Amino acid sequence: MTTRIPIIPTIIVAGAIAVMIALGIWQLGRMDEKEALVAKAEQSARMSSEVGYPRTEAELQDRLYRRTTIECPNPTGATSTAGTSERGQNGVAQRVTCTLEDGTQVPVDIGFSRNPQPVEWSGGQVRGTIAPGGRVVSAQPLAGLEPLARPDPRDLPNNHLAYAGQWFFFALTALVIYILALRRRATRARDD
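Above: the chain sequence. Below: its structure as tokens.
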């Protein structure tokens, strides 16, 4: 007696495997896009000319890692977040929110500290680097803090090869499990 392969489950498993393989291929494409983004960011970081603070998302992408100067007359929302000093020490970046003349709110990292307690800073001019998320990392520490590490494009994660590998592994695992299930089904049919 021969055992027929079930049509509907096979179609579902084949579709799932096809989707996983497509996601793996998509991640490989994203890897190339991220490498191009990092290369562009590294080029921007080498430029010495200053740019105005970006007002749109497109401008932000073009100006990442460029130097800028903003006026911050009334900083608000002092907080601290994980940060690294210029010397490579781990601690906190002291952050304030600056409201520009047009109402744009800009997060500004004003310096490094080991103390997580937010500091007081009365405001002024900030010269720094535009980092991911639109924040400005001050080139000179303010409010008596230590200097922060300058944002580095090489810190942008590029995990897309690992993600692609995971999707291909999931597809292979689904295929193996389905083949084992079909074998077990065939063995049971023979024994009956």
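The chain has two domains: 1-65+159-192, 68-150.
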